[in-house]
Specification:
The protein has about 375 residues and is mainly α. The chain has 16 helices and 3 strands. The chain has a 3-stranded antiparallel beta sheet with strand order 1-2-3. It is globular, with a radius of gyration of 22 Å.
């Protein structure tokens, strides 16, 4: 795998640089939109479960009914956590961001369960146990409870909501959560995925690669936009107040999170899907305020800047209607994206070459060393 070098300012941050080949995902390609292994995101979000999507990404094909059942059974069995992991989660401070707890736990899991299994086995293990990992830490530190990290919910979406709320979710809530996991599952060579591939290219292990990916996602310019979007939406009591505030923010050149995208130019194909779920959940609880505020912000951003909402903007509303605390928004991204990261780790291993790009030097010309006694 090689990275094409460029000295143009237009490629700052590797924008527009082709950094490798992949058969996993298309993002923003003309005529294709967003696809996972050739399947459109709209079809996957509407017709498949997240477990089918995760299987597709990791195993390269949609599962048969028998394969799906076996896959779900493996995930359910692997939801448990070692006692040493539970002690570690209790020691991670309550003041830590949940992303820090997930990153630390992923690294710890390698110590407890070293890479004696295949990368596929590790991918499935992480998919299975990360919801319980996150919510054990959350309940212990925020609510003073030690929860069981297993449930009888067959889906990851249902399992997550069951652990969070201590009861079975409604079918509507489970499906909304499931759709969200599908939409966040994969997105080509984004920062966290590229970090995972760089680590993998050194022949390091999957735990290290995914720990690095979580660290990259922790940054607010990659993950975290859904949390910022929720803070923006709930700051306003009426659409009119939101419009005035956003116009003022734009006037003062403040960044409005949840809009635009590094790759998409006209729209984020995932946004329309998640917006439909936000509207459905808003109608379910008869709460037009937050939805009205969000839609007014969307209108202002398009009229003023021709910026469209990305996946993060309306995902924030969906999570709020599902009763998910804002600090858990980005960790949900991790729980889903492990499937995509794992697919890229497997692909990188298949035809590996150390990823080592070059840099354009902009420092001083060669200089003569001056001894300490002669420096003024």
């Amino acid at each position: 795998m090689s990275v094409t070098a460029s000295t143009s300012d237009k490629t700052s941050g590797l924008a527009g640089i082709v950094a490798g080949k992949t058969s996993i995902c298309t993002v923003g390609k003309e005529g294709a939109g967003l696809t996972y292994r050739g399947y459109s995101i709209e079809d996957l979000a509407d017709l498949a479960t997240f477990e089918e999507v995760a299987y597709l990404l990791i195993h390269q094909q949609l599962p048969t009914k028998e394969q799906l059942g076996e896959f779900q059974s493996r995930l359910i069995i692997q939801r448990s956590l070692p006692s040493a992991m539970l002690r570690l989660l209790e020691d991670v401070p309550a003041s830590a961001h949940p992303m820090c707890a997930l990153r630390t736990a992923c690294s710890m899991l390698e110590c407890l369960e070293p890479e004696m299994r295949s990368a596929v086995d590790i991918a499935e293990r992480l998919l299975a146990c990360l919801p319980g990992t996150l919510l054990y830490w959350y309940h212990y530190h925020r609510l003073g409870m030690r929860i069981k990290v297993q449930s009888d919910m067959p889906s990851m979406a249902g399992h997550f909501l069951h652990l969070l709320h201590g009861k079975r979710p409604s079918s509507v809530h489970e499906k909304a959560m499931d759709c969200s996991l599908t939409l966040y599952a994969e997105h080509e060579f984004n920062a966290s995925t590229f970090a995972a591939r760089v680590v993998t290219s050194t022949l390091s292990d999957p735990y290290s690669a995914i720990t690095a990916a979580i660290g990259a996602l922790r940054g607010p310019l990659h993950g975290g936009a859904n949390e910022a979007a929720m803070e923006l939406i709930e700051r306003h009591r009426t659409p009119e107040q939101a419009e005035r505030a956003v116009l003022e923010d734009l006037k003062n050149k403040r960044l409005i999170m949840g809009f635009g995208h590094r790759v998409y130019r006209k729209s984020d194909p995932r946004s329309a899907v998640i917006k439909r779920w936000a509207k459905r959940l808003a109608d379910e609880v008869s709460d037009p305020v937050l939805m009205g505020v969000a839609e007014r912000i969307e209108k202002v951003m398009w009229e003023q800047k021709k910026l469209f909402p990305n996946l993060d903007f309306y995902s924030a509303l969906v999570y709020r209607y599902l009763g998910i605390p804002t600090p858990l928004f980005t960790p949900i991204f991790v729980i889903s994206r492990v499937s995509g990261w794992s697919a890229h780790i497997l692909e990188q291993r298949e035809d590996n070459r150390l990823i080592r790009p070059s840099a354009e030097y902009i420092g001083s010309a060669p200089r003569t060393f001056v001894s300490l006694s002669q420096r003024i």
